[in-house]
Amino acid sequence: SVLDPGPLEEIRELQAEAGNDLLVRVIGAYFDSAPGLVEAVANAVEKGDATALADAAHPLKSSSASLGALRLSELCKELEAIGRTGSTDGASDLLGDFLSEFARARRALELYTDEPG
């Protein structure tokens, strides 16, 4: 599965207590920030900018994990670690998987928000 439902269910439980659209807002905030970070990761790999790679992968790692996109978070962790070495060597090998996993996670989150609460 693309998403671990645990983190999303925790948000749903909080939402039930708060009586609002917390899950939709949290996923919406992710959709607002994640595409720019994904683009920044891809650009950093293309330009060989290790600092930019680590700086973009780090927040995406955390936000993806918080929504249950654990495979994407793991790829971000690997890309961040590569960037922290001061090089982008090996990052291009992960880029295709990273981009396709982001697309899968995004679609799964879109479907998740369409489910009845």
Automatic annotation (TrEMBL):
Pfam families: Hpt
All copies of domain HPt, residue ranges: 19-112
SUPFAM superfamilies given in the database record: Histidine-containing phosphotransfer domain, HPT domain (SSF47226)
Single Gene Ontology MF annotation: histidine phosphotransfer kinase activity
GO annotations of cellular component type: cytoplasm; nucleus
GO biological process, one term: phosphorelay signal transduction system
InterPro entries according to UniProt: AHP1-5/YPD1, HPT_dom_sf, Sig_transdc_His_kin_Hpt_dom
Transmembrane segments: none
Protein name: HPt domain-containing protein
